[in-house]
Amino acid sequence: MVADCLFCKIVAGEIGGKVIYDNDAVMAFEDLNPKAPTHVLVIPKKHLPDIGELGTDPQTATAVVAGVGAVAAELGLQSYRTVFNTGPGAGQTVFHVHAHVLAGRSLTWPPG
Ligand code: 5GP
Ligand code: ZN
């Protein structure tokens, strides 16, 4: 756990949130400020700051991708978008890597 990391605090149970999926390696919970009717964040329990660092840890990377699939299965999602914002210029505000899973409305392409 990294001090002052919001998502490490969620993993530790210090901050609540509606959990959608949980296993040894990952947690998925509803976003506090949803951008779509379904907006779930999938995070590794291990602190890694962004997708670049996640890519150096194939076991954890696989667990996060599998977690996205588990959320889709749990919620019965047929169509959804998965986003990793990386760096402040791309809108990353929490530097503990997370996959956004968005669904439940029309998702245009290209994204803004
Ligand atoms: P980012 O901007 O880093 O890609 O995504 C961070 C996400 O975390 C945002 O969508 C934001 O709404 C969400 N978020 C921020 N604080 C909390 C919190 O305390 N609980 C939950 N469940 N989500 C949060
Ligand atoms: Zn963290």
Short description:
With 112 residues, the protein is of the alpha+beta class. It has helices at 6-11, 51-54, 58-75; strands spanning 19-22, 26-30, 38-44, 81-83, 99-103.
- What kind of oligomer do you see? single chain
Query: Total number of β-strand segments?
Result: 5
The set of bound ligands, ions and cofactors reads: guanosine-5'-monophosphate, zinc ion
- What is the radius of gyration computed over CA atoms, rounded to a whole number of angstroms? 13 Å
Order of strands, widest sheet: 1-2-3-5-4
User: In percent, how helical is the residue content?
Assistant: 25-40%
Integer average pLDDT: 96
Point out poorly predicted stretches.
none
Structural class: alpha+beta
Description:
It is globular and about 35 Å long. Strands 1-2-3-5-4 form a 5-stranded antiparallel beta sheet, covered by helices on one side. With 112 residues, the protein is of the alpha+beta class. β2 (26-30) and β3 (38-44) form a beta hairpin. It is 25% helix and 21% strand. Bound molecules: guanosine-5'-monophosphate and zinc ion (ZN). Guanosine-5'-monophosphate binds at residues 6, 15, 17, 29-33, 41, 85, 91-94.
Task: Give keywords.
5-stranded antiparallel β-sheet, binds zinc ion, single chain, 5 strands, binds guanosine-5'-monophosphate, globular, 112 residues, alpha+beta
Tell me the layout of helices and strands.
Layout: H1 6-11, E1 19-22, E2 26-30, E3 38-44, H2 51-54, H3 58-75, E4 81-83, E5 99-103
Bound molecules: guanosine-5'-monophosphate (5GP) and zinc ion (ZN).
